[in-house]
Structure of Transcription factor domain-containing protein:
Amino acid sequence: MTSETGVPRYMMTSPIYVTPSNPTGLIARRARDALIQSIRCLGVQCPAGHLGVECRWWELDELPRCYKYHLIDCFLHYRFQSGIELHIPRFLASLSLPPDEGPHPALIDAMCLVACALSRKPYLRKHEPYILSQARAHLDQSLAEADRLFDFIRASALLSRYYALRGRFQEGFITISACAKLTIACGLHKIASRVWSDPRARAVPGSSLLKPPRDPVELAERILGFWAVFVIERMYTIHDRIPSAFVDDEIETVFPLPLSYFEMEPEMVVGFPEYSLRDIFEPDSGAMCIPNEWPYTRVLKGMALSQRVANLRALADVVDFTGSKEFWRNFWAIDRIMQDYIEVIGVLPSMTVAASGGKPSPSAREINLAFIYVQLHAAVIHLHEPFIAENDTSHRRCMGSLEVVVQIACMIEDVDPRYTYSLYICMRTAYDFLIREMDRRREKGDPVIPQLEVTRQRLSATMVRLAPFRIIE
């Protein structure tokens, strides 16, 4: 988002702007003024800060000190796409603090890398190797000195995102896997309350490397930080069908709320039910039946369901568990939970427009929910495909989910891929199923192959636009 004058803006939540039509208090605010103030406070030379003209820092062979502030400005605009949320006014104020009191340099470096990747400005790419080397060195320093480890965790999560955006998936997984283990060591998976005055929120396990949060906002950032690492790590483990570092039954951290809620009176936060991951697998808990739930929380629940499906598939692929009553009990239980949850979320209006051949204009909320739809329907395909030859129900489930994924692909056709690239992995599951389904039908001489080929081409075109290492060229 940019203002009429072209000044970059960032999205943030504020309790001042909470209304019935804007329940999270989401607003657009300029970051540039605060960043320029930080430059002045630190004595950094920058034409934008001192002369009010454009600083063309990227044209210099040796980066000036001010480059970080320009890239931070860009990062704040796209931070939701990076998976990390933070209290913007507090973060901007911290940039003027002495180096050992403000954000760790590793966090700033990681923000800069993500900004380069999502800016869609090819001329920034030549600077990425230097910034990446700085990020790695600062991460090593932070870990060796146990210095600002929560910043280390967030920086590692952002670095993993950066690697994925550049198509360096193995490095991305190694980074987020190590980060997840440190997250557990720091006790971030044991935050059992959103209320800062509740001992369960401030209690720190004996082995933790972090001090208790100092106020409700810091508590909120830790809750959101934990779930950010969870999401990024699960994106790898679900796709590759490998065990996650996070054991669902050991996670006590409550599902998050928007940061603006933690700036209100404590009674506002107390009114929300405190569910965690374990609750979504308890049929009578009510955790899966919350109307108008924050889309981000729905993403987290979808991740947990998808991991359960991946675990079941891994069992079935390694050893034939299909004769086990327990396997089928778990199979149909997770299938039922997913089907019920899909019904709770409901149909997106833009999906209906796309299905009828119209030109949809999805809202920001629909774009957020699109990931959840594709995520859940990819999990349905993942679960049922091995059994489609013998089970008509499984075949119908897969074809129905494929149809929904194609509708989503049509819905986001004209949406900036920087806001939808996370759908790529889930769409890949549906696409791979379609290829195998076409092969099966081709062997039988099925006359519907031409229609399926049209579907394949449409899905393929969307995936090419979403592929992380393509959208930033």
Observations:
- The two ends are 20 Å apart (CA to CA).
